[in-house]
Amino acid sequence: MANQFGRNFRITTFGESRGPALGVVIDGLPAGLKLTPEDIQRDLERRRPGQSLYTSPRQEPDRAEIISGLGTEGRTSGAPLTILIRNEDIGEPLAPPDETEEKFRPGHADWSYYQKYGLRPQPGGGRSSGRETVGRVAAGAAARRLLSPLGIKAAAYTVAVGRVRAEQIDPDFAEHDPLRFADRDLAPQARREVEEAMRDGDSVGSVVEVTVTGVPAGWGEPVFDKLEAALGAAFFSIGAVRAVEFGEGLSLAALRGSAANDPLGPEGPLSNRHGGIMGGLSTGLPIVARLYVRPTPSISRPQRSVTLGGRPTTIETHGRHDPCLAPRLAPVAEAMALVCLADFHLEPNRHYIAINQHAEVL
Fold this sequence. Notes:
The protein has 362 residues and is an alpha+beta fold. It has one domain: 4-Layer Sandwich (Chorismate synthase, AroC fold). The protein has eight helices and 18 strands. Strand 2 and strand 3 (21-27) form a beta hairpin. Helix 6 packs antiparallel against helix 8 (326-345).
């Protein structure tokens, strides 16, 4: 089972939804970086469940414990940094179900995990649960500290909930909205969209936008390791993400080149339809990506399924689930963007300068 991401800034997440703890091990973090548990905690608070009607009611404090990798004066030592987050609200212990009655949940990884690993459905989803992402957010906080001296900043917010799409984007407003919805005027409609689904025992899909500013031109690789390919891999590793677009993305397919191209000036592109990445390399303009997020598969409506023994059945999923994933997925997407960029930042040969039409490694 692959649990690692990155080559230079390498993260390994561990833990299960109803296990004693989850967390992350970060390898490759340079020595001497000032880092405190409070730095990690700020980002964990943004993802924590139980903060509104629109998120899972699971009550987890998600307290960050840094148990290795910090030297004197709260600075990283260069050794692997381990961050532990203990589970404190795992619910009532589950009795082992009868094998002939145990059911797979449609839309979850239960069935596909069983095909690959022979694992029967795990309590709370086990390793495939969205709870796993708490370790990613902790890693993203460390990446944020690494990148912040360069002026690199990331923000993620909701731009669509069901049929409601944001028209005026205000990331500052989104940070205080329970759905992290970025349009102040349309936020009440977005909330009604979720509430209607909840009354029907259903869930609703969403779109999360990630914007990263301050990335210098030239980060990435032009062929197989394109920056958007690396970021795409990071975003698609988030379980509920089903599509990703950069810049104008899908709409470019309906345009002519004359309308889709970004004109160039002495300082670079004059517009940003390309979303901050051109030819696999950053252009210095904001990197803009949109993640299309499926509705939460756990719903309390009857659905067709099969038992572990292959018998057709129906299932209704009850318990603690997010009716819309966007408000808690946005901090995860932001974290994965930062982790990916930290990986490129630490690439040994990432800096080039053109001199007399040749490339010289700095």
